[in-house]
């Protein structure tokens, strides 16, 4: 119990404050991810795959392959901001989001939330921490239990965490207004009054109490869900006792209805089942459920991807309003760059398990520095009938996450692959070599003579030096008149072998010798828009 003594006519506030839980200030780092990895083990039969990992025990594993869904990812999110995460399907966005909540256990790395590494905790400690971190899932239908009513769905997280819950570190006190009272007033406030009255930044829950005298005696008035009894002691002091009058079930029900109203749903629909709602309304239920435990950080896994465009805007506007009202921090995962631009403060671009670029929103959209980001931006349709429609299109397939490329993950599809230093080729000649290498690898042209190949890809003049010799060897392998004679292969097998040999020769001589294959890129650049840092994983900035 907490007591407030000797309050006279007028408004007084008293009571000692105690420090509450430490909170991260707005603009300070709330989530700090460093070297995060998540590998999934895929069984392919007993003898189909043998891997050797000298740093692990046992060092030899049979019949298992590792899918590197998230591979050495680092970033931070500041309190109050929205970090947008964008990338094509299969790049690891959702796995990254689930790893932050420990819905899947990380293989390696740290996930610091308010300075505590979530990767190191488990059991009851992790369960308690999840009340501060919530997730909104992509599919608004499958993420709701069809057998539960809307109100029950929103209340479920509160029941799981026994909320609302009184915080023993919060002090309770009273702010007393006395009307027609000259005697001293002693107010005793129950320790669990913070179930109803929110604590301030200093960890004090202050209950407003009005003490009045009328013709019937002394009365005390307190907010809803509290009750107060007033009596006059023998020495003339007015004694007031304040306690909670509402059960936790009733408090949960009221909070659920309040949240439903805040997300734009009619609280009178409390007892309806999910099938009675549209997709946009179901996603609002998901949003209310996530907010029910008063989290600080919410992972939004493509929350509007399944919704119509008009509904997307409404849901995002609601999310922005709630972010400002509740001081939320978002990791917002999406495919749609227009959605990311609308809601994000900073944007991270992900490709094949790596973060390839992070920058403030305007900096990334107006001054992108990674070829993959540029390709994504060029893929955005332009609603202009006069636009010629010449857009950059990425060629090739995304490599397997079981065996990703060394160095830069994007290099196998990159239109700006860097030439090996040993060749010292002019930009124009290297562009010809690069185009020829892609065409041979993907077999995008019909068989032709050596002269036709030289004219088609090199304008009739091969690169000089060793690079030209490699190109000549490749042409000799695939040209119909190779080695100066009529192309008369013994059969399809020989033709296939020639193409494979030509592809391997080009990759080994050029692609694998590029710095893009030798080192993983990581560069901090100066921003042209805004004052934040600009990270780009591209060796063109070396």
Any overview of this molecule?
- The structure is a single chain.
- The protein has about 550 residues and is an alpha/beta fold.
- Among the domains are: about 190 residues, no CATH class; about 90 residues.
- Helix content is about 30%, strand content about 25%.
- The chain is built from 14 helices and 22 strands.
- The strands form 5 sheets. Strands 10-17-18-7-19-20-22-21 form an 8-stranded mixed sheet, with helices on both faces. The chain has a 4-stranded mixed sheet with strand order 1-12-16-15, with no helix packed on it.
- Helix 6 links the parallel strand 17 and strand 18.
- Helix 3 runs parallel beside helix 5, helix 5 packs parallel to helix 6 and helix 12 packs antiparallel against helix 13.
- The longest helix is centred in the middle third of the chain and has 18 residues.
- About 5% of the residues have low confidence.
Number of strands: 22
The strands making up the biggest β-sheet line up spatially as 10-17-18-7-19-20-22-21
The CA-CA distance between the termini, in Å, is 64 Å
Structural class: alpha/beta
**How many helices in DSSP terms?**
14
Question: Which segments are poorly predicted (pLDDT under 50) over 5 or more consecutive residues?
Answer: 6-21, 484-489
User: What about the largest sheet?
Assistant: 8 strands, mixed
- Strand residues, percent: 25-35%
Q: What characteristic shape results from the CA principal axes?
A: elongated
- Could you report the average pLDDT, rounded to the nearest whole number? 88
Range of helix content:
25-40%
**Gyration radius from CA atoms, angstroms:** 32 Å
């Amino acid at each position: 119990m907490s007591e407030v003594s000797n309050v006279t006519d007028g408004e007084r506030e008293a009571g000692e404050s105690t420090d509450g839980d430490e909170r991260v200030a707005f603009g300070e780092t709330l989530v700090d991810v460093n070297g995060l990895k998540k590998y999934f083990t895929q069984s392919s039969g007993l003898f189909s795959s043998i891997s050797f990992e000298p740093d692990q025990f046992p060092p030899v594993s049979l019949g298992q392959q590792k899918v590197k869904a998230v591979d050495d990812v680092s970033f931070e999110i500041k309190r109050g901001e929205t970090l947008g995460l964008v990338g094509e399907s299969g790049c690891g966005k959702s796995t990254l989001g689930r790893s932050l909540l420990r819905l899947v256990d990380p293989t390696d790395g740290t996930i610091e939330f308010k300075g505590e590494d979530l990767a190191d905790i488990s059991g009851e400690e992790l369960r308690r921490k999840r009340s501060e971190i919530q997730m909104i899932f992509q599919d608004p239908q499958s993420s709701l239990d069809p057998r539960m009513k809307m109100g029950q769905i929103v209340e479920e997280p509160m029941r799981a965490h026994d909320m609302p819950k009184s915080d023993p570190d919060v002090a309770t006190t009273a702010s007393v207004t006395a009307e027609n009272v000259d005697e001293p007033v002693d107010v005793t406030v129950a320790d669990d009054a913070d179930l109803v009255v929110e604590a301030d930044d200093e960890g004090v829950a202050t209950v407003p109490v009005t003490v009045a005298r009328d013709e019937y005696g002394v009365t005390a008035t307190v907010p809803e869900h509290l009750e107060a009894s007033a009596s006059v002691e023998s020495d003339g002091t007015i004694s007031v006792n304040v306690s909670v009058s509402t059960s936790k079930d009733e408090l949960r029900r009221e909070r659920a209805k309040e949240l439903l109203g805040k997300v734009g749903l009619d609280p009178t629909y409390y007892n309806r089942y999910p099938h009675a709602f549209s997709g946009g309304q179901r996603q609002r239920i998901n949003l209310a459920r996530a907010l029910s435990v008063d989290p600080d950080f919410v992972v939004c896994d493509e929350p509007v991807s399944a919704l119509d465009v008009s509904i997307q805007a409404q849901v995002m506007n609601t999310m922005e309003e709630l972010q400002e009202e509740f001081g939320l921090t978002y990791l917002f995962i999406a495919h749609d760059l227009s959605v990311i631009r609308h809601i994000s403060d900073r944007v991270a671009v992900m490709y094949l398990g790596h973060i390839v670029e992070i920058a403030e929103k305007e900096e990334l959209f107006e001054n992108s520095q990674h070829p993959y980001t540029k390709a994504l931006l060029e893929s955005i349709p332009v609603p202009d009938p006069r636009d010629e429609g010449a857009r950059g299109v990425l060629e090739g397939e995304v490599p397997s996450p079981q065996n990703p490329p060394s160095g830069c993950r994007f290099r196998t599809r990159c239109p700006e692959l860097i030439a090996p230093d040993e060749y010292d080729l002019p930009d124009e000649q290297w562009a010809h070599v690069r185009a020829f290498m892609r065409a041979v690898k993907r077999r995008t042209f019909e068989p032709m003579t050596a002269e036709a190949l030289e004219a088609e890809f090199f304008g009739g003049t091969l690169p000089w030096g060793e690079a030209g010799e490699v190109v000549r060897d490749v042409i000799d392998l695939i040209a119909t008149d190779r080695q100066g004679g009529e192309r008369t292969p013994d059969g399809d097998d020989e033709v296939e072998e020639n193409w494979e040999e030509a592809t391997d020769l080009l990759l080994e001589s050029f692609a694998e010798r590029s710095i893009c294959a030798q080192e993983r890129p990581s560069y901090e650049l100066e921003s042209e828009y805004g004052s934040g840092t600009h990270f780009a994983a591209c060796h063109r900035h070396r």
